[in-house]
Amino acid sequence: MSEMILEGGRPLLGCVRIQGSKNAALPMMAAAVLHEGEVALHNCPRIADVFSMERILRSLGAETCWEDHTLRICCRNLHGFEIDREDAASMRSSVMLMGSLLGRQGCVRIAYPGGCTIGARPIDLHLKVFQTMGARVEEQGDLLEARTPDCLWGTRICFPISSVGATENGILAAVKARGTTLLENCALEPEITHLCHFLQAMGAEIGGIGTRRLRIRGVRILRDAQFWVPPDRIVAGTYLYAAAATRGKVELLDVPLGEIASILRVYEKMGGQWECNGGKLKADASGVRRMVEYTRTQCYPGFPTDMQSVLMAVLLTIPGKGRIREEIFEDRLKTAGELKKLGGRIHTAGRDAWIIGGGPLTGARVEARDLRGGAALAVAALAASGTTVIGNAGFVERGYEAIDADLAGLGARIEMR
Ligand code: UD1
User: Fold this and answer.
1) I want to staple 173 with a disulfide (CB 3.0 to 4.6 A). Which of 99, 205, 322, 407 is the partner?
2) What is the pTM of this model?
3) What integer pLDDT is reported at residue 399 of this predicted model?
4) Does position 339 have pLDDT exceeding 60, yes or no?
5) Mutation test of ligand 1: which of 49, 90, 121 has the most ligand atoms closer than 8 Å to its C-beta?
């Protein structure tokens, strides 16, 4: 796997455009399977996870092609229903194909999905959705097979906890089901709203978009559609916090302002300033100096778990004692161990991390443990003196299209090899 080499100690200055959203694009790609025709996704990020999903779609018989950042997917001649074990294991979002393949052709065989190892990440809620809609699900070791005797049936499903993936899979399964599906206690993450809007453009009938209660009336046929993948709120948050860690001044173009309110609130608590005009966010982080005493990750619109390790990196640069509590994934504090190698003073216990910030950070050899954790190491490295080498940088490339070019554009000394 590749390495990222950074030389830190200078404020980030300049302007960067925010890429299309990974977590919006992946379920949209899965949704393409529902339609016996073509969809086009503009502003689609050219990242490893998107390429993995593209590879899976092709293995099922889809035709795909890229023109710059537009990805065209044609599933007219889809024939497969079995997802290769290695492909399924390569990323979490492979599980999204369960809902769409069941909706399209009534059967799917897949190994348990992979993705970042940030906790047990069960898929019991996804499977429950399919079963409630009439599918039979069988498990053989790590292989799952789901089949519908005739079709999926609309019904009422109330999620016991908020799950982004299970909500998305429920939506995908319901779009072509017979009758109306009522999904209750849905997750509110913006990527779900984006998926619904894309499906509407394809002819799906969905009510209650943006609420916890979605009503989906099954349709028989969808239509060709094109859609603009919205910008990535976590990438925007990462670059904003990289500016905070280095006390820089940056302009972020194409920022999904409404989606990053909780990230901005924590940034303001640190002393960061910002203004936004027409999708351009100007952030002046030169005044960042206040420790944030307590932050806990929550479902949207709360502070995102995907920003937890990045926040930890920033807090290390601010004098004082802060605490972060990880409420979503039980094993997502692993990056703390790597941040300590840079000199960070962090103590973890269970779901809590206590950070004693303001001490010197010094470049060292560290290993990315997951996608966002890898980005957090880059943020800490930018604030550290000397050179940091981040191993397993491929993790970062799963979600950031060109983090090296983006940060270099902000004046960072960074190289991938
Ligand atoms: C998605 C995002 C991920 C983000 C997470 C939470 C994608 C591709 N990934 O992941 O970046 O960190 O939302 O915002 O969009 N759970 C169960 N059973 C299930 C499903 C989930 O117990 O069947 C639990 C999980 O273990 C976790 C919680 O529910 O504790 C939330 O997980 P979920 O919202 O499903 O996350 P993902 O969809 O996997």
Assistant:
1) 99
2) 0.97
3) 95
4) yes
5) 121
Q: How far is CA 153 from CA 148, 173, 287, 336, in A?
A: 9, 9, 56, 46
User: Each residue of 268-321: pLDDT tens digit?
Assistant: 999 999 999 988 999 999 999 999 999 999 999 999 999 999 999 999 999 999
Question: Which ligand 1 atom minimizes the distance to the CA of 299?
Answer: 14
Q: What 3 state SS string does 94-108 have?
A: HHHHHHHHHHHHCEE
Say how far apart CA 25 and CA 21 lie, in whole Å: 6
CB distance 91 to ligand 1 below 6 Å: no
> What is the rounded distance in angstroms from the CA atom of residue 272 to the CA atom of residue 294?
17
Rounded mean pLDDT, 53-68: 97
Distance CA 352, CA 323 (A): 7
Sorted by sequence, the CB contacts under 8 Å of residue 65 that are 6+ apart come out as 71, 72
**193 φ/ψ angles, rounded to the nearest 5 degrees:** -60, -45
75 is annotated as an active-site residue = no
Q: If 0-12 CB within 10 Å is exposed, 13-18 middle and 19+ buried, where does residue 326 land?
A: buried
Exactly one of 44, 74, 75, 116 is catalytic; which is it? Answer: 116
Q: What is the pLDDT of residues 19-35, one digit of tens each?
A: 999 999 999 999 999 99
